[in-house]
Amino acid sequence: MILALKTADRTTQAWLLDPAELQPAAAKIGQPQLDWESGRRLSDELLGRLTGLIESGGHQLTDLTGIVIFSGPGSFTSLRIGHATVNALADGLNIPVVGAAGDAWLTQGIKALASAKPGVPVLPEYGAEAHITKPKA
To answer: Is 60:40 a contact under the CB 8 Å cutoff?
Structure first.
């Protein structure tokens, strides 16, 4: 199974895709199977919700063969949490993870997953410099 995830804003979306049913040239992906207003609860809820999605289909985390994530642009914190989560999952499961951006991110990500190797983390594309507080001296 392939997990696809988009955490670019206050709404989080996820898809669980069967690799045997994908068309590499133009994957036909429907509505998200998981879609919730995550807001400031993303870090608390993300892993549990993803696990619930996978188990609701009669699968386990170990059934995942790859992960595709929307890389941005979007909310700094939402993208960071999503990427940290999928990088940790992919590393722990020894499966490839890829990121893609733009309107066709999911189709591009699925294509990239075909040649991706495990052990290579993905980074978010914020679209601008991150606005973070400088440490006090």
So the answer is: no
